[in-house]
Amino acid sequence: MLQDKNALQATKWLLKTLSPYGSIESIPQDRDSWQTILQFADRGLVLPRLALSLQSRQEELPSDVHEYLQLTLELNRLRNQQLRSQLLDLLRSLNSIGIAPVVMKGATFLLDDSIDLGTRVMLDMDIWTPKEEDINRTVECLKDLGYEMRGELLDFSKSQHLPPFFLDGSLSRIELHHRMINPAYDAIVNEADAVSGLIERRYQGICYMSLDELSALRLSYVQCRWSGKHGHITVMKWLDFLDRLKRTKFAEITGPWEFGIRSNGDDIDAQFFTALSQYCSLPYHGKIDAQLIRAWETAHNEPTWKRFSRLALRNVFDPQKWRQKTPSEIWKALAFRITNLPSIYTDAKNRNRF
Fold first, then answer.
1. What is the rounded CA–CA span in Å between residue 325 and residue 322?
2. pLDDT tens across 112-170, in order?
3. How far is CA 237 from CA 104, 165, 234, in A?
4. Which helix (H) or strand (E) holds 148?
């Protein structure tokens, strides 16, 4: 049984079990511990990965837990088969007009037969057209296939992709990037390096481009680079980063500059690597932010009502959110955030935010 049936202990057990730098410790047997573990794994989008990680220890699992995990794994395999077909249809159409886009982030797993197709949960599929002249042609191709862009088109100087494209009857939206990363991260990542390192690949005769290993690692790091003002990064993205870090042969690390991130050991970097070291067994020898661990663990264990009050006050009444807004805009935003209080309560109850 996990110590005191504590949600924090369950969280630690799950992260160390799933981390490529961790190991599987003793298998819990009581129902309360497993309920906490499965809830956290579900919120972190890693239930199928947990199923695969425990296959060698399945005889030690409670029978209903084993059956549930195997079901989620099989369902995710079936879902990802459909997503792969959707992605290949798009790539085939783009190839027909002379475009081989960059397939990025989680979508790359769909085209890698060395990885179990059910391992990763997919939320969307990201493609990038580095050539400016290819963006409009790709948009027209998506429309010809029946996709519809939903959302307001943002200033290209402030975003990395267009509003998402949806196809009725499909399982995933398409994120079309005109940049690899958000311009806000230009100071720490050189996108030109990624362009120069692109690799041409083929899958079932279809041509696409992929990032080299270091560029994919940098992109994954940017996705996880946590600022204390937001702070909700899914466990899935943490594990994506750790998987890529280990594939690039980093046995240990002192900071992100080792894989090409322009950083001088910022507090944000120290917070991120402290968390990975503490909870995912990453061999990290850089600056440790012990205060972050104490604050996170205290918040994780505080009563739901107290956590909800803190999150609600920060979300609704944070003065930084009202800068450069007119009074009418403030009232409109305030009304929206008040209607969002039920979801904040859910987050507080589920320990779903830092």
1. 6
2. 999 999 999 998 999 999 998 999 999 999 999 999 998 777 667 778 899 999 999 99
3. 13, 22, 6
4. strand 148-149
State both tokens at 290.
Answer: 């012990």
What 160-163 contacts at long range (C-beta under 8 Å, 24+ apart), as own/partner pairs, is 161/126, 162/135
Q: How far apart (Å, rounded) are the C-alpha atoms in residues 121 and 50?
A: 12
Closest CA to 260 of 337, 342, 181, 345: 181
pTM: 0.83
Q: Tell me, what amino acid is at 350?
A: N
Residue 317 has pLDDT above 80, yes or no: no
Encode pLDDT of 163-192 as tens digits. Answer: 999 999 999 999 999 999 888 888 888 899
**Percentages (nearest 5) of helix, strand, coil residues in the chain:** 55, 10, 35
CA–CA separation, 101 and 176 (whole Å):
10
How do 206-210 and 165-166 pair as beta strands? unpaired
Q: Count helices and strands (H / E) in the chain.
A: 13, 7
Residues 293-304, mean pLDDT to the nearest whole number:
72
Residue 282: what are its φ and ψ, rounded to 5°?
-65, 130
Longest CA span, the chain: 62
Give me the pLDDT at residue 159, please. 83
Residue 83 predicted with pLDDT over 80: yes
Residues 6 or more apart from 319 whose CB is under 8 A from it?
none
Tokens of 109: 């797993």
In the chain, the domains with their CATH numbers are: 80-211 (3.30.460.40), 304-350 (no CATH)
pLDDT tier for residue 232 given thresholds of 50, 70 and 90: low
Going by C-alpha positions, the residue among 197, 209, 245, 246 that lies closest to residue 224 is 245
Look at strands 199-203 and 148-149 and give their pairing.
unpaired
* Residue 207 phi, psi dihedral angles, 5° rounding: -95, 135
Q: For residue 336, count other CB atoms closer than 10 A to its CB.
A: 10
- In 10 A of CB 157, how many CB atoms? 7
